[in-house]
Each structure stands twice: as C-alpha cells, then as structure tokens.
Predict the structure.
Amino acid sequence: MPQLQRLDVHHAPALLRFERENRAYFARTVPDRGDDYFREFTARHAALLAEQATGRCQFHVLVDDDGTVLGRFNLVDVADGSAELGYRVAERATGRGVAQDGVRQVCELARDEYGLRRLVASAALANPASLAVLRRTGFVPAGDVLLGGQPGLRHMRELTAVNGEVPGSG
C-alpha cells in the first residue's frame, strides 16, 4: 500500500527516476521543468530539504511498497495558517485513486501536523483529472488563474478538525 512520506535525502534517486520517467506525461498539462532541473537535481534536492527545514515548505512523496515514487504532494509558501498545495502523480498510477488519496493524506497532515487552516490549489483547465481530484477532496473553486500562461482554476479548502471545527477557532 502506498505511503505518504516527508521528503528526505534518501528519496533522491527514486524521485529523480519518477521525474525522468514522467517528464513527457507531466509536460502535457504543466510547464516542463527544463533540462537544467535534471542536470542540477542533486543540488536542487538539497536546496528543497534546506527550505523544508525552515518550515516554509513541506514536501512529500507517495512511495509504493517497492520504494518507487508514485507521486509528489507539496505544501509551499506556508504562512499564517495556510499553504499552497501542488501535486503530481506518475502516469502509471493514474486512474487508481492515487492522487485523491495523496491529497486527502496531505490535507490531514497539513491540519494535524503542521497546524494549517487553509489550503489553496490550482489546476489547468486542460487538466480535468486534477480539477476533479480537487473537488472530490473538498476544494471549492475560488477564481481564475493563469498557470504557465494557460487558463486554470484556483481552489481553496478550509481544513476542519475531526469534530468539524476549524483549528484555532476555539
């Protein structure tokens, strides 16, 4: 069963493999990371871990039983009880509920471990699968946005505690 894990130094080889194997697939709906991303991956990975250590970002990978990375689920620009959610799932894992499960898990972590009250996420209109995942996981449309020059839709989700209260409201 896939497990959501906080990004760590030991994830680097599997994460690089994930990004390489899915590069063309991702480029269909989001801007390509470019060749420099892959050439400088080791330094970039170290920089992400350093940024995560500051608390401004929380990076996660969804790892299959064999150690294969199936997806990334990231919380960036963490401040004032909110963060931006971004995620991507391997092409071979699509259609199996992996994205939906990963988003649900990261929402729970955001609320329970990081004390966040609101998440914002955007998806391109050309990516109906991501739009559906956001809506199925409690995000509501909040306005238009441009993503890499392409039209998209911004979504928001209030993170409520198990009893229905928003953390910090009591």
Observations:
- Confidence is low (pLDDT under 50) at residues 163-170.
- The chain is about 35% helix and 30% strand.
